[in-house]
Amino acid sequence: MGSRAVVLLCRDLAVARSRFGAPGDATGAVWTRTGRPFFGPELTETLLDRLRRAAEGAGLFDELGTGWLLLDAELMPWSAKAEDLLRHQYAAVGAAAHAALPAAIEALEHGARSGLDVADLLARTRSRRENAEAFIAAYRRYCWPTDGIDGVRLAPFQLLATDGAAHQARPHVWHLDVADRLVAADPALVAPTGRVRVDTTDADSMAAATRWWEELTAAGGEGMVVKPAANLTRGRRGLTQPGLKVRGREYLRIIYGPDYTESANLDRLRQRGLGHKRSLASREYALGVEALDRLARGEPVWRIHECVFAVLALESEPVDPRL
Predict the structure, then answer these.
(1) Angle at 50 (CA atoms; ends 12, 308), nearest 5 degrees
(2) Which residue among 81, 147, 278, 304 is least packed, with the fewest CB closer than 10 Å?
(3) CA-based torsion, 116, 121, 127, 131: positive or negative
(4) Burial class (CB in 10 A: 0-12, 13-18, 19+), 164
């Protein structure tokens, strides 16, 4: 698992300056999902240089007739960007559980030997210790040491736009082919994006996809995103939701807490209202598509910012980010 990243990769400094007004010697950018720089300027340029050579080797600039690429990707490991979050939120919870629960279990076992009726409490506390161990194991899967960009992996899954064209209407197989070509050009930096094609009218196809997901998550994978093969799809009510995250049991332990799998907590989670979240996501997606179209057409920055500021306004509405 990593952090969502959007990568602007320019073929050279002249394109970066003339097309995007990039400052200094910047030949692009690597942004987080909230629009902040992922790394400092020096590390960003090191990453962009490696990725640029991969794109040149794959022939993407020439084939697409563009001086720049805008990629949607996952940047790994999670700890490369979220080290403070890991240390102060997740690791702190794990450390507290390690310190408190064994002592509590020992005290309860002593009480049980003394004849006190603590069987139910002891069972719950033992279960909490098991949950805490699973929680620690879950977040540790997504952390590994890095030195500069050594150890950093980028997993692109969609080419959002190039000069003169936004690519949301191209099928996902086209985007994944672009990603595979970058993997082939620099497998040490660019990680492959796994996928399986599913025919939703075929029970065997759906069962095979379910097994694939179960094996993926059992091996420590975060999960998968279910997408329409055609990518951008319009239904009777407008744009269809572009993707649905289907995360694994143990990854969700990071999101909802060590004890989320207890029956009472699962019952509470199942009662969440998701309508508002879906509505926001749909509106933000439509604005994002429009922003990409305006960017590809070379419209003025203020026209693109109209869409961006509208998304920011929607993001100000209070919604539980864990939904």
Answers:
(1) 65
(2) 147
(3) negative
(4) exposed
**What is the token pair recorded at 77?**
């490991």
Where along the chain do its domains lie?
Answer: 1-77+151-193, 80-140, 196-271, 273-323
pTM of the model: 0.88
Residues in the chain, pLDDT under 70? 1-2, 81-85, 319-323
For residues 84, 86, 89, 92, the Cα torsion angle rounded to the nearest 10 degrees is -110
Q: Which CATH architecture has domain 1-77+151-193?
A: 2-Layer Sandwich (3.30)
Question: What is the C-alpha separation between 302 and 306, in angstroms, rounded?
Answer: 6
Cross-sheet strand order for the sheet of 165-166 = 28-32, 3-10, 68-76, 153-162, 165-166
Residues 6+ apart with CB under 8 A from 84: none
d(CA 241, CA 303): 24
